[in-house]
Write a structure and sequence with these properties.
The chain has 2 domains: about 70 residues, Glutaredoxin (3-Layer(aba) Sandwich); about 120 residues, Up-down Bundle (Glutathione S-transferase Yfyf (Class Pi), Chain A, domain 2). It is of the alpha+beta class. The chain starts with a strand and ends with a helix. Helices cover about 55% and strands about 10% of the residues. It has 10 helices and 4 strands. The protein has a 4-stranded mixed β-sheet with strand order 2-1-3-4, covered by helices on one side. Helix 4 packs antiparallel against helix 5 and helix 4 packs across helix 7. It binds glutathione. Glutathione binds next to helix 3. This is glutathione transferase.
Length: about 220
């Protein structure tokens, strides 16, 4: 079967970064289409009519939406190289549990750090740091969440590393998570990760502009 793959994406998106890393780890050639989220393309609206969000993976004309599902799809379709999800059903369930946690806690509290102030921002910072500590504990002494090799949860979490500087600058704090920082740097040694993640300062510059567009002080 021919494999025509397109990714609708937007460079600072941590969700898009997940797809980029997974496709690169699997060695898949694809067309990258950068979306303007202030003026979404007809293709994006057609391919993700429910949420109208990036990333969208288009594989032989069919769309796959939601980055956690997308990375699992990529792993299942291109299963001959760089396995991401563990084979054992329990270990798979655990990896999916933490991936869901990343979206519900790390992403949500990180966003609240960016867009709130005062008490609300303090609460968000607390939740963000607590979430990182829980993840650090889950990592334990393993090099990756996937064990000896980079796996599903690594792909899901590492994009937020490119947003750390933004969170810490807005929140005026330094997350003391040495093991997690060492893990992120280890992930960045992998070319599929480093080429998929933008520089932290570039993300911060983008977010400053975004806040102006939305009138957030
Ligand atoms: N849960 C989704 C989140 C995707 C998402 O929030 N995408 C943002 C960019 S980071 C977007 O397209 N925003 C445009 C909008 O909400 O109109 C996923 O994992 O793919």
């Amino acid at each position: 079967m021919a494999n025509e793959v397109t990714l609708l994406d937007f460079w600072p998106s941590p969700f898009g970064m997940r797809a980029r890393i997974a496709l690169s780890l699997k060695g898949i050639e694809y067309e990258y289409k950068e979306e303007n989220l202030l003026e979404k393309s007809p293709l994006l609206l057609k391919m993700n009519p429910v949420h109208k969000k990036i990333p969208v993976l288009i594989h032989n004309g069919k769309s796959i939406c939601e980055s956690l599902i997308m990375v699992q799809y990529i792993d299942e379709v291109w299963n001959d190289k760089s396995p991401l999800l563990p084979k054992d059903p329990y270990a798979r369930a655990v990896a999916r549990f933490w991936a869901d946690f990343v979206d519900k806690k790390v992403y949500v509290s990180g966003k609240r750090i960016r867009i709130t102030k005062g008490e609300e921002q303090e609460a968000a910072k607390k939740e963000f740091i607590e979430s990182l500590k829980l993840l650090e504990n889950e990592l334990g002494d393993m090099p990756y969440f996937g064990g000896e090799i980079l796996g599903y949860l690594d792909v899901v979490l590492v994009p937020f590393y490119s947003w750390f500087y933004t969170y810490e600058t807005y929140g005026k704090f330094k997350a003391e998570c040495p093991k997690l920082v060492a893990w992120a740097k280890r992930c960045m040694e992998n070319e599929s990760v480093s080429k998929s993640l933008p520089e932290q300062e570039r993300v911060y510059g983008f977010d400053l502009k975004l806040k102006k567009v939305y009138g957030i002080e």
